Amino acid sequence: MHQKVPAGVCFPVSPEEGPQSFIEHEAEGQTIRLYSLVMFQQRCNLAQCPQNLTRVSEFFLMSLSDDPELQSLLFGLFLFMYLVTVLGNLLIILAVSSDSHLHTPMYFFLSNLSLADICFISITVPKMIVDIQTHSRVIAYGDCLIQMSFLILFGFMDGMLLTVMAYDWFVAICHLLYYPLTTNPCLCCLLVLVSFLISLLDSQLHNLIVLQLTCFKDVKISNFFCNLSQLLHLACSDTFTNNIVLYFVGTISGGVLLSRIFFSYCKIVFSILRVPLIDGKYKAFSTCGSHLPVVYLFYGTAFGVYLGSTLLPSPRKDVATLVMYTVVTPMLNPFVYSLRNRDLKSALGRLHGRTVSS
Questions:
Q1: Residues 228, 213, 145, 44: what is their CA dihedral angle, to the nearest 10 degrees?
Q2: Which residues cross the membrane (predicted)?
């Protein structure tokens, strides 16, 4: 406990805090140690960050609205979007797995992308729906780290799978004769496994950055889910190095994936332009046309969230981009693929027919 001392003097809690600068003063038979202004500033700075990582037990997430009527509307809206996303992506997985015509590398990657989208939206939306219903925004510290890790894992895996799918289109259109050799089932499974392992490594790297934080200025996260940029913003220690590592890794990994997609589609366009028949060009463009809108939606919203967390102090100002990235994009993916793909629409029709007849 602190002793009663003159105003403007701070004492350490225990001698274990290390050597201090002080002046001993005898008064009424007692020795009083007057600590220097430097120690006073150090103690008061520590008082601004009283919550060590070992003591932090929970965070408070941002509410999209404090209006009770609007909260009821948001509850129904996000519940509907979540159910539509899960159902749409599950239908794609069932159609691909049950129809032998779709047992090709392209639809194998598509079914894995649908699975990643289900996991991606399930990390944030159910928690938000429960919070709206229970009027509670509390999330435990451990749950916050788990949510952040899985969000990065499946988000990065989405980007990896989109890159793999672009490579699949490139081989199918530009090197059709080698397509059966370069996209055999073993190679397809290996590409998905490598995508998962790289995504896992990236998520654990971000998790390691958070675990190095020593204290927080506040426990209120200005977001409806836990993300690394917000936790770094709340840290009271110097996070300059962590921010450099975070944005360097994000820029390099995102840039490599996007450049690979751009390279694949440049080759595809040049190959299609050399096709003499108009019908052949149209068929080639239509086969990969469903992939481009998904790439645009994912990377457009991802870079919006990335730049928003860098330039804006509070994501509340950019909540529309966050909702687009975490909710709308996974929901639209199955519609984009099913509406622009004849084979998939036929498979869904056959699946519906078998379900009705049974």
A1: -100
A2: 73-94, 106-125, 145-164, 176-201, 244-263, 284-307, 319-339
